[in-house]
Amino acid sequence: MTPATDRAALLLTRPAADSARLAALALARIGPRPVVISPVMAVVPLPLPPLPRVAAVVLTSAHAVAALADWPARPPAFCVGERTAEAARQAGFPLAATAPDAARLLPLIRAARPGPLLHARGRHAAVDLAAALAGDGIEVAEAVVYEQPRQPLTPAARALMTGAAPVLLPLFSARTARLLAEDLPAGAAAPLWIAAIGEAVAAAAEPLSPRRIEVADRPALAAMLDALDRLATDEAAG
User: Fold this and answer.
1) Which CATH number is 166's domain given?
2) Which listed residue, 5, 10, 35, 217, has the most CB atoms within 10 A of its CB?
3) Residue percentage of the chain with pLDDT more than 70
4) 22 and 96 in a common domain
5) The last residue of a domain, from among 147, 170, 196
6) Is 204 found in the same domain as 132?
């Protein structure tokens, strides 16, 4: 946690490594303030099942890239997000295409028509790529290569949520918002200033009764930092 200031605290709920990375970027952007890291889910790699021979792989998270470390095949990769694409490139996957989210990756896959695909993903996926591409005659096998078990809020996070001071809360997935709402402590009254990576995440965050929700201009980390900056500036101005 950073030294206490009179600025709104930053509550980070992504998996631990992702939150630590986000904390460094956010504090450099919006200035020093208390930071509490309380992941609402963990990332647990699973033993790889037998994987089919495919023309390309779809990677919607850098966690999937890490989970495929022992897979000897390195087919071209369709990636969601620049961080996933960079992880795939470093792991030896040639990049077929990259898009900021799954919805914008689908047209690129349809245009390429690469042949049979493998979607390596976590247990919980925001988009059913196999169903979305089935009507286009594109075969997509799925492999769940990591789990995302829920984690309880830490005592420090509960103290933030039940306090009176404002809290800046970036949310990167609808599932994160739902899990946080389900674990909301009794008496939670802190004014929440939420940065949401998209409209679906903003809708899932409504049960948290936020003081304000700022939706990122695009589904990217840089846009989330912009949204946090806008929230922090407005919150400080009262």
Assistant:
1) 3.40.50.10090
2) 10
3) 97
4) no
5) 147
6) no
Q: pLDDT tens across 170-212, in order?
A: 999 999 999 999 998 888 999 999 999 999 999 999 999 999 9
110 and 124 inside one domain = yes
158 and 174: one domain? Answer: yes
**pLDDT of amino acid 38:** 97
Give yes or no: residues 143 and 196 share one domain: no
Q: What is the DSSP string of the chain?
A: -PPP-SSPEEEE-S-HHHHHHHHHHHHHHH----EEE--SB--EE-PPPP----SEEEE-SHHHHHHTTT------EEEESHHHHHHHHHTTPPEEEEESSHHHHHHHHHHH--SSEEEEEESS-SS-HHHHHHTTT--EEEEEEEE--B-PPPHHHHHHHHSSS-EEEEE--HHHHHHHHHTPPTT--PPEEEEESSHHHHHHTGGG--SEEEE-SSSSHHHHHHHHHHHHHHHHT-
pTM of the model: 0.88
